[in-house]
Amino acid sequence: MHEESSDRDEHARTSLVAFVPRGLLGGALMGLANLVPGISGGTMLLAAGVYPSFIRAIADLTTLRLAWRPFVVLGTIAGAALSAIALLAGPTRALVISERPLMYSFFIGLTLGGLPLVWRLARPATPSVWIGAAAAFAAMVAMSLNGAGGSGREASTGLLFVAGLAGASAMILPGISGGYLLLLLGQYESILAAIDGLKEGVLGPAGLDPARIAEALHVVIPVGIGVVLGVVGVSNALRWLLERHPKPTLGALLGLLVGAVVGLYPFQEPVRPTPGFVLHGRVLEPAELAVLEPEDWPLERYRPAPSELAGATGAAIAGLLLTFAVSRLGREDETTSTGLSG
User: Fold this and answer.
1) How far apart are the first and last CA of the chain?
2) Whole-model pTM?
3) What distance in Å separates the CA atoms of residue 112 and residue 105, rounded to the nearest whole number?
4) What's the CA gap between 115 and 304, in Å, rounded?
5) pLDDT (tens digit, 9 = 90+) per residue, 282-291?
6) Percentages helix, strand, coil for the chain, rounded to the nearest 5?
7) Which of 109, 22, 12 is nearest to 68 (CA)?
C-alpha cells in the first residue's frame, strides 16, 4: 500500500514537471492574446494544450479543494501571462500594427495547431461532438459578421458588472475576445479610461489624487466583482460540463477554435476614416478624426501580392509547428491532460 501511494506521488510530480514548459508557453501566449485585438486568451491556452488543467485548477481552488497542484498550475500560467504583458506589450502592439498580415497569420497557425489535441480528446466522434462543434462555430461566425460597434451606453453599475462578467467569460472561453465583448457592450472606452485614471491617481506627478481614485473606483470595483464571479462561475461550469458531458463540450471547444480564425483574416489595412466614423460606440467629431492615430482607423480587406501571401503562409506554418512542438513536450497521459478524472 505504501509503495502504491509513493508511485502515485511520483507520477503526480512527474506529470506536473511535464506540464511546466507548456504552462509557461500557454501563459505567455495568453498574455500576448490580451494585447492583440480579436485574439482570445482561452484559445491560446487550448492551443498550447493546458486549457483543461487551467479550468480544473481554478475550479479546485474556488471550491476549496486545496492541493499543491492547482497552485502550481495557476502560478505558472498567470506568472507567464503577466510577464508577457509587462515585457512584450509595446513590441507586440507595434508588430501587430506594422506587420498585421504576418502576425495574424502566425496567430492563425497557433490557433489551428490546437485542433489535434482537442480532436484527440474528443475521439471517437459522436453526433453530440459534431452538434456542439457546429453550434459553437456558427456562434463565432455570427459574432465576427456582426462587428464590434459599441453603443456608447452610459456606464451604469449594473452594466459595468455585466461587462466584468463578459470579460471574465472571454478570458475562460476559447475563441472569444474580451475586448470584443466590451466593445459590444459599449463599455470598452470607459473601463480603459477608469484603469488609466486609477493609475494616474496613484502614480501621477502630483502624488495621490483621492478624487480621481474615487471616480475610477466607481467603475473598477463593479467590473472587478464581475470578473471574479465570472471566472469562478464559468470555470466551475466548464469543469462540470467536461466531467458530465465531455463529448458535446469538447465538440463546442473544437467549434470555438475553428471559428476563432474567422475574425483573424490577415490581409487587412487601415484606411483613413470618413465623417460619421464610430469609435468605441461614439461618433467622432471632425477635429478628432484629424488627430486619430492610424492604429484606430477602420480596417479594409485587400488582395495580397504573391510575395505577401507566401510570407503569411510561412508565418502560419511557424505558428503550427510551434504549437505541435509544445504539445509534445512532456506529454501527459490523456486523463491527466483533460482533467476529466476525479
Assistant:
1) 20
2) 0.63
3) 11
4) 27
5) 787 888 888 8
6) 75, 5, 25
7) 12
